[in-house]
């Protein structure tokens, strides 16, 4: 069986190869390729292009069209797997990607060809931890007070001063109850914080079976009821612009919005206006419509927002371990050990 593995600046082909060695599968040929810029900042720009426009927006990795023809297994991190790549594949049995999002893969065409795609949620715990950190930081002015002290200022009166209260006395609304949203819910419940959720693809029974006892409401109801809204939905054609001006307008004056998913799931202008005009108490944002966020952006001028540079999922162990987790998922899901070359 032939495996084609495509590394990049974050997850190398060598790391993929080491993970494959732990797999008792009949792989007798491994082809290592690479994709993307070597500088992480430039690579991030390529990622954003794929997230906005899909795998067809960028060129396939060099050498892939030739090597994929007789490949049985394709493993990637963020390398684009477009229709032209899949059309060239004559005997591809499975595609594996060591990340949760799959916007870099033409899933519809892979499905039409009967090629399964296996992914791995490598940093759900990290993002969930970061989200709760942002909730406390924003609602209790932790980052702002630190910044003021470093600047030689003893500040205790912040824009949200009249709204400051214990998180346990507020309702947290979770938009999106996938892997990350569920971990956030479990952790908040463990802290004794009231939680509601909104996700059209999840049932109360499903959550209850995982020990998550929360009320599921519509998106409109969530924005009306929650004091803190935290967003955990994947970016897709369906979710792009999911959170609109009417949702922001439903938020109470003492409420907060947290986003560690993707910026494009909400409309930019209504959120910026709500913060500038103090229509809501504040926000904590880890993802932006353009990254890095451009100088002069309205969010940079707001005194009621906590901003971080898309680091919610960044931990030292998440990326290096992701190929190993992917191989484990491939074993469990497909039992490829039984596939004969």
From TrEMBL:
Keyword Zinc-finger applies: no
Q: Where is the D-isomer specific 2-hydroxyacid dehydrogenase NAD-binding domain?
A: 133-312
Biological process (GO), any one = L-serine biosynthetic process
Molecular functions (GO terms): (S)-2-hydroxyglutarate dehydrogenase activity; NAD binding; phosphoglycerate dehydrogenase activity
Q: Which UniProt keywords apply?
A: NAD, Oxidoreductase
Judging by the UniProt lineage, the source's domain of life is Bacteria
Any Pfam family from its record, for instance, is 2-Hacid_dh_C
Transmembrane stretches in the record are: none
| Record family assignment | Belongs to the D-isomer specific 2-hydroxyacid dehydrogenase family.
What's the name of the protein? D-isomer specific 2-hydroxyacid dehydrogenase NAD-binding domain-containing protein
Provide the organism lineage as a comma list. Answer: Bacteria, Bacillati, Bacillota, Bacilli, Bacillales
């Amino acid at each position: 069986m032939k495996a084609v593995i495509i590394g990049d600046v974050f997850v190398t082909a060598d790391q993929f190869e080491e993970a494959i060695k732990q797999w008792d599968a009949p792989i007798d040929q491994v082809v290592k390729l690479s994709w993307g810029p070597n500088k992480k900042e430039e690579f991030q720009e390529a990622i954003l292009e794929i997230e906005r426009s899909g795998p067809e927006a960028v060129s396939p990795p060099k050498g892939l069209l030739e090597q994929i023809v007789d490949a049985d297994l394709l493993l990637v991190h963020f390398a684009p797997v477009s229709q032209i790549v899949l059309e060239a594949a004559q005997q591809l049995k499975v595609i594996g990607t060591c990340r949760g999002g799959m916007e870099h893969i033409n899933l519809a065409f892979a499905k039409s060809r009967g090629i399964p795609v296996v992914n791995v949620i490598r940093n759900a715990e990290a993002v969930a931890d970061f989200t709760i950190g942002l909730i406390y930081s924003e609602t209790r002015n932790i980052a702002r007070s630190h910044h003021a002290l470093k600047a030689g200022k003893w500040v205790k009166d912040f824009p949200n001063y009249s709204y400051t209260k214990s998180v346990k006395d507020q309702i947290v609304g979770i938009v999106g109850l996938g892997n990350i949203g569920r971990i956030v819910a479990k952790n908040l419940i463990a802290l004794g914080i009231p939680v509601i959720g909104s996700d059209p693809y999840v049932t109360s029974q499903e959550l209850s079976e995982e020990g998550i006892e929360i009320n599921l409401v519509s998106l409109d109801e969530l924005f009306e009821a929650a004091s803190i809204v935290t967003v955990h939905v994947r970016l897709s054609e369906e979710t792009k612009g999911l959170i609109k001006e009417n949702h922001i307008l439903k938020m109470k004056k003492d409420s907060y919005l947290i986003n560690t998913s993707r910026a494009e799931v909400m409309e930019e202008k209504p959120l910026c206006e709500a913060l500038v005009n103090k229509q809501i108490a504040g926000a904590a944002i880890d993802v932006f419509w353009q990254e890095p966020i451009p100088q002069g952006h309205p969010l940079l001028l707001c005194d009621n927002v906590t901003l971080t540079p898309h680091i919610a999922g960044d931990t030292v162990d998440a990326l290096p371990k992701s190929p190993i987790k992917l191989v484990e998922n491939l074993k469990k899901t497909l039992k490829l050990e039984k596939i004969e070359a």
